[in-house]
# Entry
Amino acid sequence: MARQTIRFGIIGAGLMGHEFAVVAARWPALLDLDIAPAIVGVCDTNPALLDWYRDTLPTVQCVTTDYRELLARPDIDAVYCAVPHHLHADLYTEIIAAGKPLLAEKPFGIDLEANERIMAAVRAHPEVLVRVSSEYPFYPGAQRIAQAARAGRFGRIIEVRSRYLHSSDLDPHKPINWKRMARFNGAYGCMGDLGMHAVHLPFRLGWTPYNVRALLSDIVRERPDKDGTMTRCDTWDNAILATEVSAGDQRFPMTIETKRISPGDMDTWSLEVLGTEYSIAFSTKHPRTLRVLEYSPGCEQAWQSTDIGYSSAYRTVTGGIFEFGFTDALLQMWAAFVDELAHGADMTQPFTCATPEEAALSHRLFTAALESERTRSVVAV
Ligand SMILES: NC(=O)c1ccc[n+]([C@@H]2O[C@H](COP(=O)([O-])OP(=O)(O)OC[C@H]3O[C@@H](n4cnc5c(N)ncnc54)[C@H](O)[C@@H]3O)[C@@H](O)[C@H]2O)c1
# Structure
């Protein structure tokens, strides 16, 4: 099948810029899609990062330290932008105003005010597709939870728990970077850094919190900089958000946990939905396994574990017995973005990337959580 090419520019060539570039190189793994991305331009203010892209990706025609150079190029159809949070509002609004479809990184603005600026640009340019990066809902286990929710299998929902957990910050000697400094990462701290991953699927399933009680922890308060000098680390490390959700005729508690210091959890997202008739649990720690508990009165209650293998939203050449991982989730998310860009509502499968409205809802939740921590009270979202 001849594939139409969508020519991408990458702005921000750090950790996530590299990941996206590699996703484009893995594109042949996808079956059925009649479109493919090509990385044509790359921008980073750190020129040392650009050599890898120029030397590794044969499609790259332009590397630059000035993102406006990329935006001015007619041979760039769309942009992936992965820069520190304090730059989101300025860069995203310019990219959208330039008419370039955008897959933006979370949290989609450093704070609520920045998010509102971006949302105004989104509303002013409805012709420009804007989506927010959040790959975990593309894991097969997460897709199964979405199917169970749509089929209304849970009965009455008792409780939902979504957790996104890291552990490397347990090491007090880990050098500080921009993600541990509020002026670059934002006052949300771990919520801005990790929160979109925890809320995307719950929000997509219509589980919208209407209030929050927050417990935020600042555990490691200074870290060495690259020269070894101790520097203030002023971001929240851990957040436990107890929310109440209203969904249709149901109301239930939903806890959202985002933690940078969760001993033993290197990079784990998990979602559990407990219902009166059916419960389901998935964790990226055990990516091939889905746990379910079907219940009818009088029967024993037994969690069952099933190896669900590689059953992705977009079909791939990968055998169904193999294990799905982070880079597969990125490939699936990118497929959803380019599929929607090329085909709109007629995309191959219906699960889109996170929307600006979902990101805006996360900002209202995290802003309310900061107020809840400050006032030690329940705050409306
Ligand atoms: N989806 C995910 O799983 C995931 C994972 C990690 C980070 N992120 C998000 O990706 C974004 C970037 O994070 P990262 O981990 O890649 O950070 P990073 O520090 O590795 O990369 C950011 C890059 O942006 C560059 N930059 C700064 N100002 C710039 C400018 N004006 N123009 C061009 N480049 C500029 C920096 O030099 C740096 O190389 C953040 O929003 C972060 O929250 C998402």
User: Anything to note?
Assistant: The first strand starts at residue 4 and ends at 11. The mean pLDDT is 97.
